[in-house]
Each structure stands twice: as C-alpha cells, then as structure tokens.
UniProtKB/TrEMBL annotation:
GO terms for biological process: DNA catabolic process. GO terms for molecular function: endonuclease activity; hydrolase activity, acting on ester bonds; metal ion binding; nucleic acid binding. This is Aspergillus nuclease S(1). Residues 1-22 form the signal peptide. Keywords: Disulfide bond, Endonuclease, Glycoprotein, Hydrolase, Metal-binding, Nuclease, Signal.
Length: 367
C-alpha cells in the first residue's frame, strides 16, 4: 500500500467557515449525489456538457445540472442494450457465499473477457480520458459517462460481486412480510427502510454546507444523504477516508490466488485487467465482496427449514427485516458505508479525469 495519499483538493468552504459545526434507483442516485457534492467546481459543468439529457427521457426540471438523474440510465436501457447486461456485475467461478468466498479463487472469473463491471469501469474511464484529449467522440463520451456513474454504484453493491444464484436474484426471501429476493433486498429494501427511519432533524438543510444542499434535489432520500455525510463521512469514517481513495502500488493481475492456480493446472475462468494507482476497482471491490461471507449472505438460506431441496421444494421464506439481519446491517452502517465509498471514489475519478486533480480527487471534512 502507498502511504496515505496527499489529498489533491479539499473543498474550500471549510476554510471559510469560522466556527466548528459541526442501488435500486435510490442507491444509484445516492452514490451519484454524494459524488456530486465532492466534485471539483469546474467538473460538474463539464459533465453536464457531455451528458445528452435529451436522450434520457428526463423532465427539463431534472436535467438542470445534476448527475443523479442519469445514474440509472444503464439499467433503464438494459433491455435494448442486451450486450451491456453482463457489464453490471462480476462473479468468480469458485464463489459460493457464505460458506466459501472466492474473489476470484483458484479458477478465476466467470463470464466473457472484459465484460464485467470492474473491466467496464476501466473501459469507460479510458474513453473519458480520450475525450479530454479530443480522441473520443461526444456521443461515446456521453454513453461512457453514464456507464461510469452507474458502475460505481453497482461495484459497491455486494450482490453484484457474486454470480451465486444470479447475485441473489434467485434466492427468495421475505422483507417486512413481503416476498422479494436477496438481490432486491440490497438494491432497494434496506435503503427504503433506512430512508424512512432518519431522525427528523435531517429533513432540514444542514447549515454551513451549501455544497451539500446544492447537490440535493428535494428527493425522499435527501435526509439520508445529510445523515451519511454528517455522521458517517465527517465522523465515523473520517480517519479511514484517505484510504478509501487510495490504490495499492502493485499492479497485479486479478489476484495471487489465480496466479497460484496458473502454476498448478491452470484456470478455467477469465482474468481481468490490472488495477492502476488511480483507478483500482478490484482493490475497492474486494472488501465489498468479503461482506457476503460476513453476514450479508444469510447462512440460513442454506439450512433447514429454508433450504430448497427435492423433499422441500417450497421452503418457507426467510424473513430478513429482523434484528439479526436488517438490524445488524443498520447498526454496522454497512449500506451507508457502501454508498459513501461509491460516491467518494466516483468523485475522485471524475476529478482526476476532468480537473487533472493530482492522483486522488476531492474530499471534504467537517470543519
Ligand atoms: C432504447 O430504447 C429507447 C426507447 O425504447 C430509445 O429511446 C433509446 O434510444 C434506445 N437506446 C439505445 C441505446 O438504443
Ligand atoms: C466500452 O465502453 C463503450 C462506451 O460505453 C461501449 O460501447 C463498449 O461496449 C465498452 N466495451 C467493453 C468491452 O465494455
Ligand atoms: C440529529 O439527531 C440525531 C439523533 O437525535 C443526532 O444524533 C444528530 O447529531 C443530529 N444531527 C444534527 C445535524 O443535528
């Protein structure tokens, strides 16, 4: 690992404040909104020149300069961009959370070479760097940017980091008594629950932080974002954040595991492109994937009475809105941390691409 990197850019409003005060659609939009808060001031106008809002069916109101409205574009048009469906996730052949977590393990990754979310992030970043140099067309940059914003959301959703049962889509569970599936619990249910149980004080604008308020759009999740920033980014995780934005020096293909396997009989899966010292999706995704074996993929679904077997073809649904599951996740601030990491890392990359902000991009802190 590098030493804690120098932060290239800190929003200046801290300095000017004299005293100390201090993944469904919502998930993707929250990641994009947090990113927008941390953009270098010159970057947002550039992004909004690149994005062709007219192609996204947005109302004129939505298309004022915000990036959240296009954060789910890649999902909305998945059906007529079928080639892109595999770009939203990655999974290792050996992965079977929660009993064995492989990322990628001995066999390597499932799928087609270059067609996964981690390689997708590198592809679209390179295309956008090409746009800055005048080598990528405006149309290609428009598409690449919409994918980039989306991929930072997907790559921080743990269920997008495994191929087991289609990332949990095939695992039927209940949440609040309603049938759903494990993937959807992480896309939507946990966020919906969190946004509906925010202390009342966060419904009001946070004083002294106009950069936060300017990025909000009157959404139901605004109070949630204020809380994530105020209690999470400014407090709980303040010391860790420089580490979130850093990348290890070593540029290694996929993992040591996969290399070991090459020496002992070869992989059957694919390899991914190496991380670099600014964009390291594999390094960032690894701890997200680890969560699957740390309580996020409930082990009960593999045990009686919930395990589906020939003798038990219609098992009862495991309820996940319980103290042991949603309560545990809430207490650990797991969802909030994933959203915050996705947002800050996205801001860092956008600042790097479009403002040449040294290595790391922005972060703001409590003053
Ligand atoms: C997908 O279909 C919609 C209309 O159904 C269209 O407006 C849009 O341009 C299409 N997107 C692509 C990338 O072809
Ligand atoms: C790279 O991104 C471009 C722009 O969005 C896309 O058209 C292309 O299919 C991508 N290629 C891969 C291998 O992901
Ligand atoms: C809002 O209320 C919560 C709980 O009462 C408290 O912990 C938090 O510090 C308050 N936040 C602000 C910004 O006042």
């Amino acid at each position: 690992m590098r030493l804690v990197p120098t932060v290239a850019f800190a929003l200046s409003f801290c300095a000017s404040i004299p005293t100390a005060y201090a993944w469904g659609p919502a998930g993707h939009e929250i990641v994009a909104t947090i990113a927008q808060i941390y953009l270098h001031p010159t970057v947002l106008p550039t992004l909004c020149t690149i994005i062709d809002f007219s192609s996204t069916n947005l109302s004129p109101l939505d298309s004022t300069c915000h990036i959240a409205p296009i954060a789910t574009w890649a999902d909305r048009y998945k059906s007529n961009m079928t080639w892109s469906a595999q770009l939203h996730f990655i999974g290792a052949l050996d992965d079977h959370p929660p009993s064995s977590c492989a990322f990628p393990g001995k066999k390597g990754w499932a799928g087609t070479k270059r067609v996964n979310v981690l390689d997708g992030m590198k592809n679209v970043t390179a295309l956008l760097q090409g746009w800055v140099k005048g080598e990528t067309s405006d149309d290609a940059a428009n598409e690449a940017l919409k994918f980039l914003i989306h991929f930072f959301g997907d790559s921080h959703q743990p269920m997008h980091m495994t191929g087991r049962e289609r990332g949990g889509n095939q695992v039927k569970v209940a949440f609040g008594g309603k049938e759903t599936n494990l993937h959807a619990v992480w896309d939507d249910s946990l966020i919906t629950k969190a946004t509906s149980t925010i202390p009342q004080n966060y419904t009001l604008p946070l004083p002294y932080y106009p950069e936060i308020e300017q990025a909000l759009r009157g959404s139901s999740y605004d109070p949630y974002i204020r809380r994530i920033i105020r209690e999470g980014i400014f407090q709980k995780w303040a010391d860790e954040i420089p580490g979130w934005l850093s990348c290890p020096d070593a540029v290694k293909p996929t993992s040591v595991d996969a290399q070991a396997a090459l020496g002992s009989g070869g992989t059957t899966g694919i390899e991914i492109l190496p991380d670099n010292d600014v964009l390291c999706p594999y390094h960032w995704a690894k701890p997200t994937h680890d969560l699957l074996c740390d309580g996020v993929w409930p082990k009960e679904v593999d045990e009686p009475p919930y395990k589906r077997t020939d003798k038990n073809p219609q098992p009862p649904l495991l309820e996940l809105d319980t103290p042991a599951y949603s309560g545990m996740i809430g207490q650990r601030w797991l969802v909030e941390k994933q959203l915050a990491q996705g947002g800050l890392r996205l801001a860092g990359i956008l600042n790097y691409i479009f403002a040449g902000q040294g290595q790391r991009g922005a972060f703001i802190e409590e003053c």
